[in-house]
Every structure is written in C-alpha cells, then in structure tokens.
C-alpha cells in the first residue's frame, strides 16, 4: 500500500517523520522520493498539503513538514 491510496481518516493512523525542506526542494520531489511505483506523486502531493495544512504546495528552505515514515 502507498500513501496515494490512504484516506484522510487513515492519515491519523499512519506513522510520520519530520523532514526539513532543503534549498530548492519542491513538494513534488519529496512526494516522488516517498512514492512506490504504484503511487501517483500528484496524489501524494495533495495528501502532504492536507497533512501539513499547507495553504499551497509551495515550500521554503528550512521548513519542517510531516511525511510518512519509512516502513
């Protein structure tokens, strides 16, 4: 199972890790890094925006966001 098929109710039950955003890093590249081959990175971006209560997908260097922990 990947994050792209996780419902918002399931997000509460998923283990998360904090990731610090690097210079020039984008949410899409973070999503691609945690996606499985079956995942759609765009759906993961949407889930990360929701999880982190981001007003938009833009990030800034040094910002900390929650991402699904490696299993």
Written description of the protein model:
By secondary structure, the protein is an alpha+beta fold. The protein is 32% helix and 14% strand. The chain is built from three helices and two strands. A two-stranded antiparallel ribbon has the order 1-2. It starts with 7 loop residues before the first helix and ends with a strand. Mean pLDDT is 84; it is low at 1-9.
Descriptors:
71 residues, disordered N terminus, alpha+beta, 32% helix, two-stranded antiparallel ribbon
Runs with pLDDT <50, length 5+? Answer: 1-9
Cα gyration radius (Å): 11 Å
Largest sheet: 2 strands, antiparallel
Number of beta-strand segments: 2
Which strand-content bin applies to the residues? 5-15%
Distance between the ends: 11 Å
Query: Number of helix segments?
Result: 3
């Amino acid at each position: 199972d990947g994050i792209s098929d996780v419902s918002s109710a399931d997000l509460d039950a998923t283990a998360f890790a904090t990731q610090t955003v690097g210079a020039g890093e984008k949410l899409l590249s973070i999503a691609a890094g945690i996606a499985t081959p079956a995942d759609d990175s765009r759906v993961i971006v949407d889930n990360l925006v929701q999880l982190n209560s981001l007003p938009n997908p833009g990030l800034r260097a040094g910002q900390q966001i929650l991402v699904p922990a490696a299993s």
